[in-house]
Design a protein that fits this description.
The chain is mostly helical and about 525 residues long. It has two domains: about 20-220, Growth Hormone, Chain: A (Up-down Bundle), CATH 1.20.1250.20; about 270-485, MFS general substrate transporter like domains (Growth Hormone, Chain: A), CATH 1.20.1250. It contains 24 helices and no strands. The protein has helices at about 1-20, 25-45, 50-65, 70-95, 95-125, 135-160, 165-190, 200-205, 210-215, 225-230, 235-245, 250-265, 275-280, 285-300, 300-315, 320-345, 350-375, 380-400, 400-410, 415-445, 450-465, 475-485, 490-500, 510-519. Helix 6 (about 135-160) crosses helix 19 (about 400-410), helix 14 runs antiparallel to helix 19 (about 400-410) and helix 23 (about 490-500) runs antiparallel to helix 24. The chain is globular and about 65 Å long. It catalyses: D-fructose(out) = D-fructose(in). One of its GO terms (molecular function) is fructose transmembrane transporter activity. This is Solute carrier family 2, facilitated glucose transporter member 5.
């Protein structure tokens, strides 16, 4: 009992002392999120504004080569390839997460990843001069690979570096930069800036600049301490990295917690994706991230953005001003994600997930009603605008940022890369699927397609309510213990493993002490 009391005391002490956002931690969060996550967002929306000018370029190039204009069906195919190759590349990028982060480290992977972005930026920026549209489609795949890696590695890198009481807030920072990237692309894509016949190659090429900045600055920052200690076995480097990140010398508590995590995982070794999928002790964690990632992408966020222009036009916004409305929606997205950074540690992850998906669910249902009645009831078009805004708020506070935070928190070091690979692949595959299927859904169901999104949000809420635990302010080992109870197997297995592991001469009490305090 005394042991537990001592433990409680030390964790109270460490909570008070660990909660500091040091300058180094803030800088590494900003540089890695700006250099990587920002471009994910930027490339999501960068081709929306200049689409007509880019399609003209495709047409002219084809005419220049063949002497006949392009068939409209072929042009539609080329354009849908230009759009959909990005999420497909993202899927391939997610498949590269596991080998890269285990062999090159988290920071190393982010640095290597910049090569993809800079290469794609040069190709896209010079495509008009080279008179080739194939290069744009190829570059979209390369940018997708870049974004697939970035969207998984940045949350992992920052989550492993953060103290437990800032992990949620820092974990939302990559999503904040994704929304910022979307907003910057929307602003630069205005007709008066770069969204015109002359400016679009520059607009596409600008994506290389954040990568170049990251490539120059990130090498001066430390690697993830957990990676250094648990995967590289280098305690001295891990201690130095932690001392720099925390801004003080006494990091023994955190080193000790990492050692415990390392010890409990020694038996299991590194998880590949296959072993992760078949290991019973991580079953509910795996199902949870798959459900949250599917919920995040299949809840209709792309569809709402797609419909937004039309919804505003039907409410009487002039078609030439719709692009400014799109920018304002992007701004709301950024502001609400910024709010999530500040409230995720006080309210917790569960509340934000439930509230976020709840708002999305209600606004999809009301939006279906409003879109169907707007021909007969004049004020319904304004209600549909409110629904779009409420939906964006819901997605920005919960559905978008929190699932990536949860992957970091629900898995220990050895299974985390494989978990990100699975979660990231689901994220990008669902993104790709919605892009392909939505146009057909919209043609067949019209505004009723939002009812499908409403049902998906509802199913996700029910799952989160019953299964997903609160992970706020807990160490990775504590979260692992909560999930172990749900998996119903791990506690006993671990206890046996640890008893075997800690056999000391005549140490029966020693064994029991370890298993009771660690489990």
């Amino acid at each position: 009992m005394k042991l537990k009391g001592e433990k409680q005391e030390s964790s109270d002490y460490s909570e008070g002392s660990k909660g500091k956002m040091t300058l180094l931690l803030a800088l590494v969060s900003l540089i890695s999120a700006f250099g990587s996550s920002f471009q994910y967002g930027y490339n999501v929306s960068v081709i929306n504004s200049p689409a007509p000018y880019m399609q003209d370029f495709y047409n002219q190039t084809y005419f220049h080569r063949n002497g006949v204009p392009m068939d409209s069906g072929f042009q539609t195919l080329l354009w849908s390839l230009t759009v959909s190759m990005y999420p497909l590349g993202g899927f391939f990028g997610s498949l590269m997460v596991w080998p890269l982060v285990n062999n090159c480290g988290r920071k190393g992977t982010l640095l290597i990843n910049n090569i993809f972005s800079i290469a794609a930026a040069i190709l896209m920026g010079t495509s008009e001069l080279a008179k080739t549209f194939e290069v744009i489609i190829l570059s979209r795949v390369i940018m997708g690979i870049y974004a697939g890696l970035a969207s998984n590695v940045v949350p992992m890198f920052l989550g492993e570096m953060s103290p437990k009481n800032l992990r949620g807030a820092i974990g939302v920072v990559p999503q904040l930069f994704i929304t910022l990237g979307i907003l910057v692309a929307q602003i630069l894509g205005l007709n008066s800036i770069l969204g015109n016949a002359e400016g679009w190659p520059v607009l596409l090429g600008l994506t290389g600049i954040p990568s170049l900045i990251q490539l120059l600055i990130l090498p001066f920052f430390p690697e993830s301490p957990r990676y250094l200690l648990i995967q590289k076995g280098n305690e001295e480097q891990a201690r130095q990295a932690l001392q720099k990140l925390r801004g003080w010398d006494d990091v023994d508590d955190e080193i000790e917690e990492m050692r415990k995590e390392d010890q409990s995982e020694k038996e299991e070794g590194h998880f590949s994706v296959l072993s992760l999928c078949t290991f019973r002790g991580l079953r509910w964690q795996l199902i949870s991230i798959i459900v949250m990632m599917m919920g995040q992408q299949l809840s209709g966020v792309n569809a709402v953005f797609y419909y937004a222009d039309r919804i505003f036009q039907s409410a009487g916004v002039d078609s030439s001003n719709v692009q400014y409305v799109t920018v304002s929606i992007g701004a709301i997205n950024v502001v609400m994600t910024l709010l999530a950074v500040f409230i995720v540690e006080s309210l917790g992850r569960r509340i934000l997930l439930l509230a976020g998906f709840g708002l999305c669910c209600v606004s999809c249902a009301v939006l279906t009603l409003a879109l169907n009645l707007q021909a007969t009831v004049s004020w319904m078009s304004y209600l549909s605008i409110v629904c779009v805004i409420v939906y964006i708020i819901g997605h920005a506070i919960g559905a978008s940022p929190i699932p990536f935070v949860m992957i970091t928190e629900m898995f220990l070091q050895s299974s985390r890369p494989a978990a990100f690979m699975v979660g990231g692949s689901v994220h990008w595959l669902c993104n790709f699927t919605v892009g392909l299927v939505f146009l057909y859904m919209e043609a067949g169901l019209g505004s009723y397609s939002f009812l499908i999104f409403c049902a998906i949000c509802l199913a996700t809420i029910v799952y989160i309510f019953f299964i997903v635990p609160e992970t706020k302010n807990k160490t990775f080992m504590e979260i692992n213990r909560i999930m172990a109870k749900r998996n119903k197997v791990e506690i006993q297995e671990d206890e046996e493993k640890l008893e075997d592991f800690h056999t000391v001469p005549g140490g029966r009490a020693e064994k029991r002490e370890i298993s009771s305090s660690e489990l």
